[in-house]
Amino acid sequence: MSFVTLGALLVALLVGAPIAAHLLRRRRAEERPFPPARLVPPTPPTARRRSLLEDRALFATRAVSVLALAVLGATPLLRCSHLSLSRRAGASVALAIVIDDSLSMRARTDGAEGAAREGRSSQASSRFERALTAARELASGLAPGDAAALVLAGAPARVALASTTNLAAVSEALAAAAPSDRATDIDGALALARDLLRGLPQSDKRIVLLSDLADGTPGAPPISGTPDIATWVPLQELEATGQDCGIVRADRSGQKARVRVVCTAASTAARGPDIAVAQRDGGADVPLAAGASAAGASAAAGRSLEVRAGDAVLGKVALDPALRAEELSIDLPAGAPEILIAALTGGDAIAEDDRAPIISAGGPLSIAVVVDPATTHVETGGPPPLEQALSALDLDAQIRPLPSVPEHADELAAHAGLIVDDAPGFTPEVRRSLAAWVERGGVALLTLGQRAAAAPLGAGFEPLVPGVVRWSASPVPGVDPATAGWLGPSAPGLADVAPRGRATLGAEASEGAEVLARWADGAPFLVRRPLGRGVVLFMTLPLSTEESDVALRPAFLSLLDGFVGAARARGGARRLSAGEVWTFDGYHDVKVERVRFDRDGAPQGSRSREALPVAEVERRLRVSPPLAGLYELTLDGERSTRVVSVPEREIDLRPRRVAESARAAELGGMAASIDGSPYVALLLLGLLAVELLLRSIAGRQEPAEGRAS
């Protein structure tokens, strides 16, 4: 508040003037007839008694008038600003508001971060709450004829409200928005927002991005708009700053708890693609931005990792001040309870990632691989391309090469996914065990080649792949990219694949299945076939580098990524990241509940469990948990526990760059709220009229009293 504003408000002290005026007002003493007084000569009076507050209504009117006068003087000087759009010649606007609801947006603003680090409480709001307030301010400035949409930028990006001219629906959608523990998907959210705005009749189309810009890719191209749709990043105060340490994984194996802790540098330490250094992390080199080592040290300095059972601490280890990413091991005492919590002491930018439930035998996802190294070798040496690709993707999966497909279901039960390259058919025993494993939720990927077509008598692929597999020269080269959307942006890379031959399938192989990609002549290239609670994917090309180079193309990495994701979603892993999807094929009664814990880490009981909605998409039951924590699943009466963790890249608080065009003043800014001076002036006029009326009434009463006396 400025000195001029304060001076204007000090006029309110003059409210004491009416008090003094009423108390000092003198009036003629009241006369009472006294017969003996006629015998005494009259003496002029030298003083009159002071009156008390007699006309309270008149006094109250004058006091309120003085206060209103002070408000009137200060109103033009007060600036209650709010976010607003700048319109082009008053034209209607098509607006898409993108709100980042990821984990990093839970960081507190203003002085709350420092208070948390020092162990003090703070009532400051989070970045998400500030973004939501700004979105409401923009929505309140919309006028009839404007269109608005709402997109949430937590991965995967989602449309919370499609483009609409119903402004009440915008307010309802904003009221339903809530923070989550998802990763950030700014690029995906902006792409969705552009799709929602294209085709609208308004010529002025804009996207407003309300995000801390920390999406784990600080070196990505700057955020900017397109020639037809402008992008505005208005609030620099939301930009990610500060330091954070978080628990991204906590597993229990026997009498040991293994907890992965990641600490990141301050966002100001590195902006953009700075020179990186490497720090040894369990045998692997981890890239760090310049300056991140020193800044990351302060994030972990003086802090410890504890394993708790309720309010009891079962184990504790101090964090290395230079910790960047490390898996810490803590010995557990004998008889430790089943439910344990890993927690970091102290405070940092984000409190929600400082605790995580510890689960038994969580471990990485197990993917079994059956491949012949002799047919899929590469000239540079090393493991087969399939194993190299799975390792390069870093999908938190453990690759287990097998010499052959196990014949017993018990051997397959330890794996969530199975990849078999060009097998010469399966024996009846293997087919039965494979089918039973898939029906219980397993995911299999079969590549069919020349050996598959030459299966000996009694060997085959039924019921995994119905019909007969044949091998012949490829009549046309290339895969049709328009039919390969499941492979993502890398699908066009298969358009020029020219294999020496390919497998052909009968029509029965596609019955009840989904063709994910087709050859240029329409024949199936990649097919997904559900079987019980699991799924079988089969491709009509082997992985042999002598037949084609498909295993060396980026689209093959997309195929493996989708395969591992399907294995994880179907329950192959007891842990997944917030925002990923559990898919329950073959189940009819599905119930998912999040278990809440109290401050000491103990479960709060069944009454505090939060049930998640189960959606049916394409006749498949799906659940997408938005928050990290412990979940209880009831699948057709069978109960199990799973864990949702925070995405590791979300702890990186280095923001992306923003193009100058996205900060342009002509797009909008902070505007003053409506001036209340006219309303206060009208109030003053009304008070003046009331005062005149009261004085008129009082003037009439005094002569009447004089005549009566």
TrEMBL record:
The chain crosses the membrane at residues 6-24, 57-78. Pfam families: BatA, VWA_2. The keyword Cytoplasm does not apply. Residues 1-76 form the Aerotolerance regulator N-terminal domain. The keyword Glycoprotein does not apply. Keywords: Membrane, Transmembrane, Transmembrane helix. NCBIfam families: two_anch. This is VWA domain-containing protein. It comes from Sorangium atrum.
